[in-house]
Amino acid sequence: xxxxxxxxxxxxxxxxxxxxxxxxxxxxxxxxxxxxxxxxxxxxxxxxxxxxxxxxxxxxxxxxxxxxxxxxxxxxxxxxxxxxxxxxxxxxxxxxxxxxxxxxxxxxxxxxxxxxxxxxxxxxxxxxxxxxxxxxxxxxxxxxxxxxxxxxxxxxxxxxxxxxxxxxxxxxxxxxxxxxxxxxxxxxxxxxxxxxxxxxxxxxxxxxxxxxxxxxxxxxxxxxxxxxxxxxxxxxxxxxxxxxxxxxxxxxxxxxxxxxxxxxxxxxxxxxxxxxxxxxxxxxxxxxxxxxxxxxxxxxxxxxxxxxxxxxxxxxxxxxxxxxxxxxxxxxxxxxxxxxxxxxxxxxxxxxxxxxxxxxxxxxxxxxxxxxxxxxxxxxxxx
Length: 383
Hints:
Elements: E1 9-15, H1 20-31, E2 38-45, H2 51-61, E3 65-70, H3 76-86, E4 91-94, E5 100-101, H4 105-115, E6 121-130, E7 135-137, H5 147-150, H6 160-169, E8 177-180, H7 181-186, H8 200-211, E9 215-226, H9 232-235, H10 245-259, H11 264-283, H12 291-303, H13 307-311, H14 314-324, H15 328-335, E10 339-343, E11 348-353, E12 356-361, E13 364-369
Parallel strand pairs: 1-2, 1-4, 2-3, 6-9
Antiparallel strand pairs: 4-8, 5-9, 6-7, 6-8, 10-11, 11-12, 12-13
């Protein structure tokens, strides 16, 4: 009996109730890849409605599809971890179930793998669209306009300085990366299941870049990412299920810094981009009624940081002194870094947060979009 040919790429898709139209678009883009020798691992995370039937339909149609189902929602981290364990290819990538993988993505990624002698990670670019608005964001996910990134295209990256640039100027999402599976397994770098659905990609991507001995960046745009309000819309709800997510993320990063003697460049970017950025960004999203609780938990995390970690991270030490030792009002003022405009006596408010314009009427957010990209047209070529 001839030896079975292993797939070249395993594509892992966690599925939890995306719009059915988008799910079909996603699956069509996967089975239509020009690289045929792939496996598609669908993790049905207790989805309901028409999604389970769609997944069964596609699995019956294409024998490259492996379908797994959780009867209870385990969170996106657990779903992806299941996919990594089930994968049989040397390389895997993660695709969100409402996004699109461009037709030649697999072929171009495997060309990069062969050209650059099996790197641990291949990082690529992607387009962003607002499906509800039908707008297109022509902003490179790789910050192609930045000279530091341009200088890294097509190079085998091994140094800590270059990896710190990657963490600063590329997205922390997992979908724009091809991972060598054995590198992930050897380092035990599975997704953190404490981060049920918020920020597991940030922790996973940062740690993966730190663990990878050899990386390469290619400028090709191979992915279509559907922008939406997403999880941030839930943060403003008084009963937000992800209230602790930025704090858990900070705690996990601190543990990572404690366990590894990382070069200074990587420690600095983990503190600034991984910890402080997310602590500040989402504090502004939470309702004021929960600010004290948030600060109380943040203080507890800061006070548990081991002294050696503080001694080797000046930026973290400064943030520690601001959060662990100051009073609530000082910390709140320091964390609230967004700008606000009020109209009609405060009935309508506009907040600029992380490049987005958020509009509120009587406390209810009704619109959110990067203003400068509203009038741009969607891409015509997604191949």
